Amino acid sequence: MAVPIITFENVTKRFGKVVAVDNVSLSVEEGEFFSLLGPSGCGKTTLLRMLAGFEMPTEGRILIDGQDVSNIPPNRRPVNMVFQSYAVFPHMSVAENVAYGLKIEGVPAPERRRRVEEALDLVQLHGLADRKPDQLSGGQRQRVALARALVKRPRVLLLDEPLSALDAKLREQMRTELCTLQEKVGITFMMVTHDQDEALALASRCAVMNRGLLQQVATPNDLYEFPNSRFVADFIGSVNLFEGVLAVDEPDQAVIRSADLAADIYLDHGVTGGRGTTVWAALRPEKIELSKYVEGVGPPVIDDAPAGSNSVRGIIRHEAYLGSESTYEVEIPGGRRLKVLRSNLTRWDQEDFSLGETVWLSWHACSPAVLLS
Amino acid sequence: MEQSWKSARGIFAAALALPLFWLVVFFLFPLGIVWLYSFGENRGLTDIALTGTLSNYLRALEPLYLKIFVKSAGIAALTTGLCLVIGFPVALAITFAPPKAKGWLLMFIMLPFWTNLLIRTYALIAVLRNEGYINQSLRAGWGLANGLATRLGQAPLASFQPVELLHNNFAVVLGLVYVHLPFMVLPLYSALDRLDTSLLEASLDLGAGHLRTLFRIVVPLALPGIASGVLITFIPALGAYLTPDLLGGPDSQMIASVIERQFKRANDWPFGAAMSFLLMYLTFIGIAIQGALSRKSREPG
């Protein structure tokens, strides 16, 4: 396998007594759109700034293209950054901003002009070359920052919360554009974000961080469906978590018994851990099915779980209609409220669930994710 | 603010009345009288006839006085330049100092303000005069060197001649720089402190070294602060009276001393008034230039 383009080797960063990044090891392959995801203060920005050279690791090494960059100052690293505030130079025109890095490199004027023009075309800013930054919108300023970094042809483009300062509509649009841009230039992107939607939509791989620790590194799909901890399950999307013990643990099936839930959670696969271990079952709202409760009739039949498991009765306590889908909060015996999401598949929904109604909640044997920590 | 002064005229007027009264009676009115005097002629010892003559101004522009005007402007410009060169690194250092140290450093810059100017100037005299601390140290050094020379069998050195540090242009510029440095550092600091540090990081990120970042990013963006620092250093330096009067020699008098002499010893108030107002017109021109510059830098495009 080729040498990873970025490698963090046991990197720790302390600010005084505060540990911002705690023994992180991570490698990123060439051409990836890699995202660092986590709540604010989790150390993701510090990790990015160490890569750019603005912070030095307290311990460990950072390699770019297999080369230790510990002693290389930011102005000689083959990476360029798009800052959260964009940091577009206010006293220079758009073209001067983009040309700044090339001028320092000593690129001759004709080539410089050509490359600046190319970069501005790439981010769709042709015609605005002579504008000053205060005549640009937020989205345009960000494009200047992108062009200014990309024109240097960096090995890795670093993006610090690139979309956080844009309004919702523009954010959506820039998301798609960043994706196509990365495909077009083929440069490795490394993005920091606290917005899980952004990370899931853009990244080919994500690292989830919490309190300086790397929690999980996986594709967006795996992060969502196969989280490795309660933190990741809870941070990515919304989830119903049940603490319980393994009552049955066999190679092809397992049962989790939770004090919060009237029914057993039946799984059609084994769990590493063994009987009696405390585990957590994570059940996503969209994987819970709602059905009408009829007096005297038992729970709906689930084709892959034995009767009596994987379904509970509850009362709808809250309902929110969101257009494409509706969300419900359903109170189950014991008082807990579960989040349930239901797609509005038809325009005249036959089963109109209303507030205060008693319903069945059921799920398939493959739906819950089992978490050991 | 929802409420503008228009909706609360009464309160606004009441708050303004006293300071306005003070300014009019004790500042504008006397200033007006002096301005009128500048168009007058001396009649006897105390009487001044307001004849509307321009002769006072014409006399002030005679080579003898014009030379002092030019010299004053030169000394003030040199002072301002030195303040800028010394003050910029100081302001930069305070800007990037740890937050805890910032307050202390700013206080050290302000500290001289809390001491009377006269006392500070006499302290400088104590340092600079022939028997001052500098010359005493030099004399001690000279004595040591002399002792060393005789011990090594060399001929004894000539007797020590104190270095003339006081009562010359050097002392005046030194004193003016010392007094006016805070006027330069504070506006520079406030301009630099507002600078977005991510701009500096962006410059480094794009390959620029620290020096290039300083001259291509920091200085251009601090230009409004530099302009106001230059102005509020230059104006008081131009009209400085105490410092050149006490530290200067016969050849280093500045315009303020000449004006003072007209009002006191020469008893020629009209001429003194004309020179005062010439100084004021120069100041107005300076402020107008600075205003035009800052307006231009604020204009987009």
What can you tell me about this protein's structure?
The complex is a heterodimer of chains A (373) and B (301). Helices cover 23% and strands 33% of the residues of chain A. Chain A has 373 residues and is an alpha+beta fold. In chain A, helix 2 packs across helix 3, helix 2 packs parallel to helix 4 and helix 3 packs across helix 4 (138-150). The radius of gyration of chain A is 25 Å and the shape is elongated. The two termini of chain A are 32 Å apart. Chain B is an all-alpha fold and 301 residues long. Chain B has two domains: 55-123 and 166-298, MetI-like (MetI-like fold, Orthogonal Bundle); 130-164. Chain B has helices at residues 9-37, 55-60, 63-95, 99-110, 117-128, 133-151, 169-193, 197-205, 210-221, 223-238, 242-247, 255-263, 269-298; strands spanning 40-43, 47-50. In chain B, strands 1-2 form a two-stranded antiparallel sheet. In chain B, strand 1 (40-43) and strand 2 (47-50) form a beta hairpin. The longest helix of chain B is centred in the first third of the chain and has 33 residues, at 63-95. Chain B is flat and about 80 Å long. At the A-B interface, strand 6 and helix 2 of A face helix 8 and helix 9 of B.
